[in-house]
User: Fold this.
Amino acid sequence: MNSTGKSPPETPLDDDVKVLHRLGYAQELSRRLSRFSNFAISFSIICVLSGGVNSLAQATSGAGGAAVGLGWPLGVLISGFFGLAMAQIASAFPTAGGLYHWGSILGNRFTGWLTAWFNLLGLVTILGSINVGAYSFFIGAFGPALHMTDSMASLIGFLAVLTVVQALINAYGISVTAKLTDFSGYLIFGTSVLLAFVCLAHTRHFDLTRLWRFANYSGPAGAEVWPRVPSVGWIFVLGFMLPFYTITGYDASAHTAEETKQATVAVPRAILSSILWSGVLGYFLLTAFVLMIPDMDAAAKQGWNVFFWAMNQRVPLVTRDLLYALIFVAQLLCGLATVTSASRMIYAFARDGGLPASRALARVSPQHRTPGAAIWAAAILSLAFVSGAKWLEAGGTPVYTVVVSCTVIFLYFSCAVPIALGLFAYGGPKWRHMGPWNVGRAGFSVFAVLSIAGMALIFIVGVQPPNELALNVTIGFLIVTAIVWFAFERHRFQGPPVGRMIAVRQAEIAAAEADLGSARDQPG
Assistant:
């Protein structure tokens, strides 16, 4: 009450809490993220300075300049279809672990459970691959000067220290993480623009035809990045793996919805803005780099070393080292944001009893208002994945590259499932009320169908050589999940609250929030 005896008007934060209660959950996490902070988390995970730089050989040792000039925008457009469909669902259901929750609400317990496991595996392995990429970039950029060489011991030691630091920062509080990811957003933008201008400044011949000139560098001509493919058109399609791998992770905006103010509007905007800005920045950066390359044939032969080779050929040492340092920091913060996303997914799945040790994994620190156990679980699982995959790879099995290819399939599949379910649930009892971000039935249907078609293309491209084992891994994972579900989980797993269960949970919600002191923000 105020001095006039009237209750003060409700704030947007109150509306956020009411929406969360209506979905059957307590406000346990600290809601401190602004619209920009929510955007910055997804923008940091996408990070064109990570995937765009470290995976560049998929284009330069594939279809050449056309894979960037034409292939990049086409791949980003396909990701945009996913984002447009997800934005509408996120506006209606702004919960942590968004994809899992959407898959359950719009479908059933099984579709939610399946979505959760695909998303969880994708997030954990993509975290590992991001940090491995940062390690590889560090060795390529600074290894010669520091007399460091790549080895299993240096890799695991580097990743162990890095992952622990990322987990500690996340565990300390969302406010600290938000400040760093906000900084990361500005850093990625500024460094991408700076790198593009440096490339253009050191371009000797502006041959714009490179950007739509097709080549076929598969096989020995491209250092076997892609095995020999006779068709130029097909090697161009395979080059879509560059934007597909880079433009992932925007579901992080949904995973952090319960920590975002005005989430029903902020989250869908962040999903789309992160895709748009990453696509535009990536195109500017990568086309500038292609124009700077001294010789495309020679660049193709460099394989995965093409970025450092071209920079060494054209850019002075001091400028080069400054850019390397900025890119490396951006890649570290990319991993930090991925820990945030993965841990919120684990927390959301665990609070509905979907994981072993769910009670512990769903626990929120009263002091920091973060899911500490979920954060450490994400960090440990990613480190275990890299260690196991590299150990098997040392024995001659190409496990790591295959699993990384699978993560792209898994992440997009976990997005496609709720989108496909939404196509049928739209307007029905499972999805009767739309959020403020609403493109209408016709608009959502178009984007959903295009997303499903995009998923088919991503799967086809993702299982091509040298990653043909990804097909077996994906099919095997589907078989294992089906066995586990029908043998155990269909009788145990109840899924998120729906219908009368939401009303029953209100007392538990009040108790949970009372234990944490309040549903409103506390210093994190």
In short: The first helix runs from residue 12 to 22. Residues 58 and 314 are 21 Å apart (CA to CA).
